[in-house]
């Protein structure tokens, strides 16, 4: 684990969540180097995510793989509140025992997004890919 994705000091330019295919795509660019490559992170087999704050203008500190259970414990209050208040999230978030069983049975990975400015949060998924878009365009 602990695979760092070098998004440090990059600014999020787009966040796409495709519910039907359970995919989240994060694209970021270096605002200090116009025309530089964009970095893209794709999380597929999306089990859930929790973002706190506003991604508009978010400057990423790190996007790093973490233990999915530890991340669940860190974000459990927000996940459980959304589930009980509005049915947001899948039922696996409701209890720690349920989350631990679900994460292990489905081989779910966890990723933490931290920032120096803007949103922070966690993403749980089965697969992760990252790449560079050479000309900085989507």
Structure description:
The chain is of the alpha+beta class. It has one domain. The protein is 21% helix and 43% strand. The chain has helices at 68-86, 96-105; strands at residues 4-5, 11-18, 23-29, 38-44, 48-52, 59-66, 109-117, 120-125, 127-133. A hairpin with a 4-residue loop joins strand 2 and strand 3. Helix 1 (68-86) crosses helix 2.
Shape: elongated
Average residue pLDDT: 91
Order of helices and strands: EEEEEEHHEEE
Radius of gyration: 15 Å
What would you call the structural class? alpha+beta
Number of helices: 2
Q: How is the largest sheet built, in terms of strand order?
A: 1-6-7-8-5
DSSP strand content: 35-45%
Helix content: 10-25%
Query: Can you tell me the number of structural domains?
Result: 1
Annotation, overall tally of beta strands: 9
Keywords:
138 residues, alpha+beta, five-stranded antiparallel sheet, four-stranded antiparallel sheet, 2 helices, 21% helix, 43% strand, elongated
